[in-house]
Amino acid sequence: MASTNDLKNGMVLNIEGQLWSVVEFQHVKPGKGPAFVRTKLKAVLSGKVVDKTFNAGTKVETSNVDKRTMQYLYKDGTDFVFMDTDTYDQLNVSEAVVGDAANYLLENQNALVATNEGLPLYVELPASVVLEITHTEPGLQGDRSTGGTKPATLETGAQINVPLFLETGTRVKVDTRDGSYLGRVND
Known about the structure:
SH3 type barrels, 1 helix, Rib_uL2_dom2
């Protein structure tokens, strides 16, 4: 338990059985009436953002969210198996928790896995990853200057739009937040 006077950005609160992360907070002391704390909270699981006001000094329940860098090992049925890089403990994370991150997740890749009391909450990938195009239609001669795009399948099975001049086998940088093409990688 903590008081609303102790709130900090990033702190995780347990309100009515749901976990909420404090995005921002402001202590307000009006000229008349009691002081209060205005907060912006983000639901840890769904990402929904809400504004909530607490009376100053109100007790709120805090939760400990453990964020660790883990290595993705393999897919086991509908679960993704991650390994803690410090303790070598393995953790099974369901497909629902991994969500869209599965489109950009390769074996042996590191990701941030957040847990609460041993229960996986979400998987966070780096802002961008490098993946290989496994299939795309050949671009037509003369299409290089139009700036058009075409669909391409990545080695993870995800589909993104890439410029017309890219070919199968090219390694590209992809934004993991929205699946957009960021550039070609020469290695």
